[in-house]
Specification:
five-stranded mixed sheet; 5 strands; disulfide bond; Thioredoxin_domain; protein-disulfide reductase activity
Length: 108
């Protein structure tokens, strides 16, 4: 796992995501989710490629269901981009690298 990817909890979500100076890509996932595991390497790559322009944060919905519920997460993986404390874009389901970079580029 990349050192650039952070793991947010109910207690750290506000500081890690909502109060971030940079846009934040949040990955709502769970350890048992196959598609979540499939996109993990792409998120690690994105955390390096977009270093200094966006933060990547993961939220384990199994351990922190209150965070997922607060943002209406119903399926995983769900990717959500936050800017200035607001969710500005959402993508549900696994993505390939082209889809991920397109999603990030159009959101930031």
């Amino acid at each position: 796992m990349s050192d650039l990817i952070k793991h947010a909890t109910e207690k750290t979500f506000e500081a890690e995501v909502l109060k971030s100076e940079l846009p934040v890509l949040v990955d709502y996932w769970a350890p048992w989710c196959g598609p979540c595991k499939a996109i993990a390497p792409l998120l690690e790559e994105a955390s390096r490629d977009y270093e200094g322009r966006i933060h990547v944060v993961k939220v384990d919905v199994q351990d922190h269901p209150e965070v997922a519920a607060k943002f209406g997460i119903r399926g995983i993986p769900t990717l959500m981009v936050f800017k200035n404390g607001e969710a500005v874009a959402t993508k549900v389901g696994a993505v390939n690298k082209t889809q991920l970079t397109g999603f990030i580029d159009e959101s930031i």
